[in-house]
Amino acid sequence: MEQRFGIFEGAKKRLKNGEDITIIESSSGNTAKALNVIASIHNVPFENITNRIDIPEARGILKILGGDLIELPGTSSCPDPTDPYDPIVQIEEKVAKNPHYYHTSQYTNLENPKIHHDTTGKEITEDLGKVDYFFGALGTTGSSRGIIEYLQEKNPELKKIGIISKTGGMIPGIRNEEEMMEVRNIPKRTI
Hints:
By secondary structure, the chain is an alpha/beta fold. The chain has helices at about 5, 10-15, 30-40, 55-65, 85-95, 110-130, 140-155, 175-180; strands at about 20-25, 45-50, 70, 100-105, 135, 160-165. Strands 3-2-1-4 form a four-stranded parallel β-sheet, sandwiched between helices. A two-stranded parallel sheet has the order 5-6. Helix 3 links the parallel strand 1 and strand 2 (about 45-50). The two termini are about 30 Å apart.
């Protein structure tokens, strides 16, 4: 959960300025659960807009945590600005109409890879020493990107292998081959 504090930094600045805010995000589970807890700690409402919660337990946990869960039709977690039901499109419309919303934006928030660089990458190196290979399951790629950047600072010859599910497959938080085309800076190739 500590990594989600990174994408919450902008919200903390607004809270320090005395603003009333609602945290809003699009997540299929893990990020939403963590942000919901963090928002609760800060006494801030949380809203998750998604079209991809396939695990009943994740839905149940989100409801127990008390945030608002808005589920849209569709199955891809890849942003599609041409789809009116795209969660990111819905979030951007809400933020434009009501500035009290704060979008943590796990897809574009540079604090996402930075916090993984500063914490997760460092922890891996402290536990394992020199790392020759990194295998990362790819979702928004923030964690893999941050970890890889840190590990490469320690070993420039690091080999990096991204793991995705097969086309049509669904692993919570992990993209499948078709969806990887939507993630920037990741070349599509089969391993």
